């Protein structure tokens, strides 16, 4: 599948940052046993990955705006286009030596995400989508799952950590959903949760309190794989509110009803 020049630039940046992160990830395994732990090292790796991506993308498209988790927002000379970047999604996994983390890069045009790349460098799985061109993992076309029954479905979520205020809501969600489905997973990388729905591995995913950089790329990958995407309640935009629910079309309504507490 031939992608656009922007897509190729995004893939180049994601692979370059991914290579640097894989090297650092090997080092993390050694640091695990030291008393200081790998915390500072990982923050440095994270910032360095964003620097690599920013350099590639902004050299290639100097007029575009920027929103990155580590370096914040910068308006571009072209106010209609903006990169949205999480250089390392799944930091806790990375920090603990667990190979489930990704580089996430999206391109927004006039408020809409038009291209997304989520690169799981540890497994060399590159998920990408472009508006109208479908969703892909490496050179394989992606399609959401065909499961139609909730009791066969496996869902992903993120359990809020630290001082996040939505923990009680999440626990209520789990109490309602778990008896009705085949399982719930919490793997700790929102961008990959979305990519896995696109790949038909998960049947759906929901989470609250996310940021645009966690989900921008994954959202278009799910849409282009034929998935349904929305806020948890009507009229909520996932990118604006950070709360989202995605699933295949058969499961979307019943799954959403449960999460809404109806
Ligand atoms: C986190 C991951 C996680 C989600 C958190 C995010 P980070 O991103 O996507 O799955 O539950 O809310 O903050 O901090 O690893 O980039
Ligand atoms: Ca993230
Ligand atoms: Ca991050």
Architecture overview:
The protein has two domains: 5-141, Fructose-1,6-Bisphosphatase, Chain A, domain 1; 150-260, D-Maltodextrin-Binding Protein, domain 2 (3-Layer(aba) Sandwich). The model has no long low-confidence stretch (mean pLDDT 95). The chain contains eight helices and 13 strands. Helix 5 (190-198) runs parallel beside helix 6. The protein is globular. The strands form two sheets. Strands 2-1-3-4-5-6-7-8 form an eight-stranded mixed sheet, with helices on both faces. Strands 10-9-11-13-12 form a five-stranded mixed sheet, sandwiched between helices. The N and C termini lie far apart (42 Å). It is 39% helix and 24% strand. A hairpin with a 3-residue loop joins strand 6 (125-130) and strand 7 (134-137). With 262 residues, the chain is an alpha+beta fold. The structure holds D-MYO-inositol-1-phosphate and calcium ion (2 copies). Residues 86, 89-91, 158, 188-190, 210, 214 line the site of D-MYO-inositol-1-phosphate (IPD).
